[in-house]
Amino acid sequence: MFREHRAGVAIKILVAEHDAAWRHVICQSLTRQGFEVCTATDGASAWNILEDRNAPKLVVIDWMTPVVRGDEICRRIRARMDLYYTYVILLTARSYRVDVLAALSSGADDCMTKPFNSEELAARVGTGRRTVELEERLSKISGQWRTLLDNAPFGVVAVDKQGRIMRASKVFSGLLGYSDVRHLLRADIATVLHISDGQATGLMEQIRLQDPFDNVEVTCRVRGGMYRLRLWGRPLHDNIESAYEVVLMP
Length: 250
Prior knowledge:
alpha/beta, Beta-Lactamase, 10 strands, 2 domains, five-stranded antiparallel β-sheet
């Protein structure tokens, strides 16, 4: 064995489009929908905006933006460890199925083929807004969860069904030698613990089967040394974000 959307508050959206006519049409449509629109005419400018602390969480970007292409922007967004999700709609003049699949494979959430009308744009962006709002609500819950547990004398981590870390307390990251909780997000819990193959297999099996366990001792490699730690695990029922919770005690 082992920025929340509220009535009267505009949501920010980035439009990165090098074609002036298309940029005007898109911005005009999104402004009518009540969005706060910021624009970029090339990929480098778009990336600078997205690196800002208060960057938009909704992005409409053309595949062929100069300097840095839209698909590369998608890959950069997915490669970084963000606390909040960024929803990306990639625009393309290509209509072949293989091109749409390539766009989605780069990390885009949606792909729109030009030309399109304002009604289609509104529907696609509406889906993105709902996704971002749900993510923000989950993040707010996660923040309350961290505040509650960061003062506890034990480490707590919540994972999905594949064992990927969705939330972690400061104590948990500190016990494993990490100064920033964000370094753990989406990482595999067994890999982070540096436990043996047998123990890792057992832990993942417990998570997969949703079986609880109590006071299991494991040997972890922490800060270059080997330490014995104790783990407790329990399934999280009816939790949208996470499926399982693990408590770690030194």
